[in-house]
Amino acid sequence: MPIKKTKVHLISGFLGTGKTTALKSLMAQKDPNEKWVILVNEFGEIGIDGAVLSDEGIPVAEIAGGCLCCAAGPQMGSALAKLLRNEPDRIMIEASGLAHAASVIDELKTAPFADQLEIAAVFTVVDPRQFINPDYAQQALYKDQIGICDILVASKTDLCTPEQLAEFHDKAAKLFPPKAKVVEVQNAQLDIQWLDIPVIEKSRYRLKALPDNTMGFQSQGFTFPAGQDFDGERLTNFFNDLPKLTEGLVRAKGVFQVLGTWVWLNWVDGQWGANQVAWRRDSRFELIAKSFDADLIEQKLRDALEK
């Protein structure tokens, strides 16, 4: 029988967006038959009183220093090991507003936790006014928090104009990889059902929206499970060969796990570039062109995997 893994939910977000309030809203809705444990930063913006949470029957561990990613390693590992002795159904992790969320996920995927934990829905709480501000969007830390999440939560919406919210949704819809859910909330109140939103895409999928399909464009997406490394040189050759593998190539972009890190590749106007990204859920590639052989494209991608 396979060992039942504990589900882990990371709640990330910039300073002052309402992460602690969001976590408290989930705790208030918890099924009494589920066993939760909580891991938080000791110096959070609001701070969670461990004694109060213990009164609610939920064990709490606090990481000193105010930044989970900096504490990742002995301190975070020992805290997790202690919490797992309770055999919980879920671990809720509130990351510091200054945490590189991808580093936390990477730590959860190392031994011995990889065999004990399932990375379930990851949340990032944002202020839409910051999200649409280029000064925030260009910060590596902010991009990291946006990139890692499955569910993007717009908080403080009462402070936004309709135009700001419309711009938020427009930008959020264009994120790649796409989010499992983008929501607006009042007072950082989350819905408990969002914890179980499916976060794994099927291996092949159609894009939800195309730029202008009047010219007969085709679309296709492909996913590969995390843990499968791609070969950097083979990926380079694949992107170089894309114009020959398709007719009327419009867009090609993907995130790939390469040598233990994650890179974003984007083809546009006959050229492609690469950047590191925080996405950790799966490797995926999306393509829009007038015509192509989807089976051939998938085979070429598989050929680019590490042998």
UniProtKB/TrEMBL annotation:
Source species, domain of life: Bacteria
Gene Ontology cellular component list: cytoplasm
Gene3D superfamilies per record: P-loop containing nucleotide triphosphate hydrolases
Chain ranges of the CobW C-terminal domain: 219-305
Pfam families xref list: cobW, CobW_C
Function according to Swiss-Prot or TrEMBL: Zinc chaperone that directly transfers zinc cofactor to target proteins, thereby activating them. Zinc is transferred from the CXCC motif in the GTPase domain to the zinc binding site in target proteins in a process requiring GTP hydrolysis.
Protein name stated in the entry: GTP-binding protein
Species of provenance: Neisseria elongata subsp. nitroreducens
Taxonomic placement: Bacteria, Pseudomonadati, Pseudomonadota, Betaproteobacteria, Neisseriales
